[in-house]
Design brief:
Length: 327
């Protein structure tokens, strides 16, 4: 449920000439002999929702913690709203909100007390009553923190990241532990926050979440960026964009289709033929077969997904990563 102050959709401010909200160049961070981040470079446009995806241990959390100034990189540069997060934390603190994987709050404080305490840290905080309502915590304002469920604690941590009305919000696995309805309500909230001009950096394992929310995503594996694009663009780059599956009515020479400019590949699975390609792939395949006297039955169009890209580039499935901690 989004409130009036959190509504009103506009396009992200990814305008040529606009200074990026975050610029990370050649970031490297090690823990002893373990290389958590080997070489990460990326930029986040002002006003966009930027996703960071990758397997456990890929370096996602270490990257955002360095961007927040919580960890000191071994090398590389980071600028957040033009500021160095390690050298200028006092200037950056009011401008950036963060929700990290784990939080430690006093168990005997009530939710309302926690919200009021955090709001007191900022010159122009959000309305905490409105924020609690938007995140489904209105009826928990008098509850002790220790009595909250895991999902409720997660919602509270998101509220604390947004209470200062930051220019940038960094959210690490924000919907872990939430039920499907709560996840969708949180997505609506985040879209509303972005529509107010807030830049969002979203670390997530959920492919549907990234596809729904993110303007662009960076896929990180083994401490390096292996792809940055829109979710659709990243999927198309890996899998050729589209797939057409059908059952031919008669045998045909595969060169009939592989010679088409829209077709990038063809494979057979039993009686099914699967054609990979782009553009007007379905029309090109069906019309070409028809001209050769071959019909196509049980036609299915499959668009490549972000999960396809994740699996192809990392050789791991996202559900294997869910719920685990990573650096």
């Amino acid at each position: 449920m989004t409130s009036s102050r959190l509504a009103g959709r506009t396009a992200p401010a990814d305008v040529p000439g606009t200074e990026p909200a975050i610029v990370i160049s050649n970031l490297r961070k090690t823990y002893g002999r373990v290389v958590a981040v080997g070489d990460v470079s990326l930029s986040v446009a002002d006003g966009e929702i930027f996703g960071i995806l990758g397997p456990n241990g890929a370096g996602k959390t270490t990257t955002v913690e360095c961007a927040l100034g919580l960890r000191t990189p071994d090398s590389g540069t980071i600028r957040v709203l033009g500021l160095d997060p390690r050298a200028e934390p006092e200037k950056l603190h009011p401008l950036v909100g963060a929700q990290l994987q784990s939080s430690a709050l006093p168990p005997r404080l009530r939710v309302a007390e926690i919200l009021d305490l955090y709001s007191s840290f900022y010159f122009d905080p959000a309305d905490v009553t409105e924020l609690a309502e938007a995140l489904g915590l209105a009826d928990k304002r008098q509850a002790f923190y220790r009595s909250l469920s895991g999902g409720q604690k997660q919602r509270l941590s998101i509220a604390l990241a947004l209470v200062g009305q930051p220019r940038i919000a960094i959210l690490d696995e924000m919907t872990t532990g939430l039920d499907p309805q709560a996840r969708r309500e949180t997505w609506e909230l985040i879209e509303g926050v972005r529509d107010r001009g807030v830049t969002i950096v979203l670390v997530t394992h959920y492919m549907d979440e990234a596809e729904r929310l993110c303007d662009r995503v960076a896929l990180i594996d083994r401490g390096k960026v292996i792809g940055i694009d829109t979710p659709d663009g990243l999927a198309a780059r890996v899998h050729g964009g589209k797939r057409v599956r059908f059952v031919p009515s008669a045998p045909f020479d595969e060169r009939l289709l592989t010679g088409l400019p829209e077709v990038r590949g063809l494979e057979r699975q039993g009686r099914h033929v699967i054609v990979h390609g782009s553009g007007q792939l379905v029309n090109a395949v069906i019309l070409t077969l028809h001209a050769a006297g071959v019909g196509a039955r049980d036609v299915e169009l499959e668009s490549a997904s972000l999960e396809d890209a994740f699996v192809r580039l990392t050789s791991r499935r996202p559900e294997d990563e869910n719920g685990a901690n990573q650096r």
